[in-house]
Design brief:
It is a single chain. By secondary structure, this protein is mainly α. It is 76% helix and 1% strand. It has a two-stranded antiparallel ribbon with strand order 1-2. It has one domain: Sodium/glucose cotransporter (Up-down Bundle).
Length: 484
């Protein structure tokens, strides 16, 4: 299909998003922007969070990685299910009990104001890097598949897409993205299922027959059995649990949607349902990756990694599937950008600027500040997307998980110390601990061969980072009863 026709479908889809944004942002105030007026339907939140959790990286990078890492990513997702149970039944009750708008307000209540601002600042850095890495991947695919043919430069593509996201999030915030993420998740999942079905048809295989061929070619291996390797099943499952706790339960973007639900019980149902749906959807993505690895040699296609899925669909599948793929790709792009922009704006305004505490500011002034912050983060996103373009990592999912291990580790340690102990910490030195722990992790990571020999440290670096933060906080604390 020609690039102009594909572009027309993209613009039509965006017009639909703008319509949803207009409808949901009517009479929206700052409370609606930050927390959806605490009245979001839990089922829509759960479904929309699937798209946010997966993003364009899962859509493109997980299938493309099967040829290299088989189905080992499923070990991490099995760990996610365990982590989501902790989020649902340990963290969510904590957030609801304190009536939080920003989850990092718990750190102020439990540890002190510097701990609170440290937690919020860590989130801002982590989510900014993670979201822009995800955004870059999908912008790159759109550039390669459609916009290069128009002679449109990469920077302009990124700028236009960010402008689109700004247009439909700047007013409605959480109230809007609860609905737009639902629409986008549906588009992404529909694209996944249709592409899988057509690949099976092109290969002339049944599901059982395709799985048998994947097993023969060692593509469907799930569990790693070498205790020293990064892919050992216990390492991956444990790391997956802590990744879910950190990247969902300690992440303002994800929790902002959950605590926008009116009742705790419904928010818990949202998270449990999310974990089960994610397990099923990622399994299908891995299966699709196996089909792509089987199909590519049959047509002499020598492409791997993140470029494999687009190359197969746009080169060898019917026109209607190509259109649906592009729509699904856009659907995977926007949830990773719109929710991040909204959550970063919320955290910066509430946690770092103290917008809700400024009694001398009227609603109009607060709205002006919030819009300015929103625009500022969009500009920062643009700069970082260009930075990732210069880096051009062949498989972004590994890079994103590495970023998470370094940046979410201190958050994991801060919340664990607050929840699991009753000790009072010297709040003044908490920012230093939050910087020292990832720095020490980096030293261990780059010298792990000298330190551990054949033992390979992988995603459990996140756990180590959190543990070092916990130990540092313990060293700064004294035994004293503190409110939970």
């Amino acid at each position: 299909m020609s690039a102009p026709v594909l572009l027309a479908f993209v613009l039509g889809y965006f017009a639909l998003l703008l319509g949803v944004a207009w409808w949901t942002s009517r009479r929206a105030d700052n409370e609606a922007f930050f927390i959806g007026s605490r009245n979001s339907p839990w089922l829509l939140v759960a479904f929309g969070m699937v798209g946010t959790s997966l993003s364009g990286v899962t859509f493109i990078s997980v299938p493309g990685a099967v040829g290299l890492t088989q189905f080992s990513y499923l070990q991490i997702v099995l760990g996610h299910v365990l982590g989501y149970l902790v989020v649902a039944f340990v963290l969510l009750p904590l957030y609801y009990r304190h009536g939080l708008t920003s989850i990092y307000g718990y750190l102020e209540h439990r540890l002190g104001p510097r701990s609170y601002r440290t937690g919020a600042a860590i989130f801002v850095v982590s989510r900014t890097l993670g979201a822009t890495a995800r955004l870059y991947l999908v912008v790159r695919v759109l550039q390669d598949t459609i916009l290069d043919s128009f002679g449109m430069p990469f920077w302009l593509t990124a700028a236009v897409i960010l402008l689109m996201v700004l247009l439909y999030t700047v007013e409605g915030g959480v109230r809007t993205i609860v609905y737009t993420d639902t629409l986008q998740t549906a588009g992404m999942l529909l694209g996944l299922m249709v592409c899988t079905g057509f690949l099976l048809q092109r290969l002339d295989l049944t599901v059982a027959g395709s799985l048998a061929q994947m097993q023969e070619r060692s593509l469907a291996t799930v569990f790693g059995t070498d205790p020293q390797a990064k892919t050992w099943w216990l390492k991956q499952v444990v790391a997956g649990a802590f990744i879910a706790i950190a990247m969902t339960g300690l992440d303002q973007e994800m929790m902002q949607k959950s605590i926008s639900v009116k009742r705790l019980r419904d928010a818990q149902k949202n998270v449990v349902l999310l974990s089960l749906v994610l397990l099923a959807v990622v399994s299908l993505f891995l299966y699709l990756g196996g089909l792509l690895a089987l199909f590519a040699p049959t047509v002499g296609l020598q492409v791997a990694g993140d470029r494999l899925f687009p190359a197969v669909v746009l080169g060898y599948l019917p026109v209607a599937v190509q259109v649906l793929f592009v729509i699904a790709l856009i659907s995977a792009l926007f949830p990773s950008a719109d929710g991040a922009l909204t959550a970063l704006t919320s955290s910066f305004c509430i946690d770092l600027l103290g917008l809700h505490k400024r009694a001398d500011w009227d609603e109009a002034r607060r709205t002006r500040v919030r819009r300015s912050v929103h625009l500022g983060f969009a500009a920062l996103f643009m700069a970082l997307v260009m930075g990732f373009k210069a880096l051009d990592d062949p498989s972004m999912i590994g890079l994103i998980l590495k970023i998470a291990a370094y940046t979410y580790g201190p958050l994991l340690g801060l919340f664990a110390f607050g929840v699991l102990t009753q000790r009072a910490v010297n709040d003044r030195w908490v920012p230093l601990v939050a910087l020292a722990a990832p720095a020490l992790c980096w030293l261990i990571d780059v010298n792990q061969r000298a330190l551990f020999g054949a033992w390979q440290l992988g995603l459990e670096l996140l756990v180590l980072n959190g543990a070092l933060t916990f130990v540092g906080l313990w060293g700064l604390s004294r035994r004293q009863a503190a409110p939970a």
